[in-house]
Amino acid sequence: MDIMLRPSASNDAPALEKLFLQLGYEINRTEIQKKTSMLAGMPGTRMIVAEMDTKVVGFISLQILHWPHVINPVSRITTLVIDEQWRGKGVGSKMISHVEKLAISDGCSLMEVTSAAHRAEGGTHTFYHQLGYRNAVNETTYFRKNLVK
Questions:
Q1: Is residue 143 part of a domain?
Q2: Range 93-112 average pLDDT
Q3: How many domains in the chain?
Q4: pLDDT in tens, 64-101
Q5: How many CB atoms lie under 10 A from the CB of residue 109?
Q6: pLDDT at residue 41 in the model
Q7: Domain assignment of residue 46, given as a range
Q8: What CATH code is carried by the domain that includes residue 51?
Q9: How many alpha carbons fall within 13 Å on the CB side of residue 81?
Q10: Sign of CA dihedral 105, 81, 41, 143
């Protein structure tokens, strides 16, 4: 079966709603349409879906970041989700390879991705390691603060 990659469109919102729910994010298709429309207009942002037989089975988003203290822009995968039924079938690897090429063509020499700690149990962290990503815990620390309570 062929995996087709294409830019995400507004009519993908129902499929994305189901995918995001698998990640634990309860966001409805109306909000998804708003967010993806807003992001589609932002320079350096790419949103890609994977289709198998015209069914959306995966989503990845990439953002290119320009930091004032780094010469080359930095790329960051901000979302990656593959439908549970299609995991382990090469969809995620193909999507990551695709956005890595996009990032390189945009002048990036570094790709970042974060993954929730609880995703290690399901094999997500192993998946990233197998693709050559390393845990950067000894290089950087990721801090968070809720701004709205």
A1: no
A2: 96
A3: 1
A4: 999 999 999 999 999 999 999 999 999 999 999 999 99
A5: 12
A6: 87
A7: 4-130
A8: 3.40.630.30
A9: 17
A10: negative
The β-bridge partners of 77 are: 62, 113
The pLDDT of residue 116: 82
Find all residues with CB under 8 Å of 100, minimum gap 6, and list them: 75, 111
Task: Report the alpha-carbon distance of residue 57 to residue 102 in Å, rounded.
Answer: 20
Closest CA to 131 of 84, 98, 109, 102: 98
Asked, for residue 146, whether it belongs to a domain, the answer is: no
Residue pair 81/58 in contact by the 8 Å Cβ criterion:
yes
- Between 14 and 121, the more confident residue is 14
The pLDDT of residue 115 is: 85
Return d(Cα 131, Cα 16) in angstroms, integer.
24
Residue 71 lies in a domain: yes
pLDDT, one tens digit per residue, over 20-62 is 999 999 999 999 999 999 999 899 999 999 999 899 999 999 9
DSSP-H helix ranges across the chain: 13-22, 29-40, 91-105, 124-130
- Residue 148 in domain: no
The pair of three-digit structure tokens given for residue 119, joined into one six-digit string: 């995703």
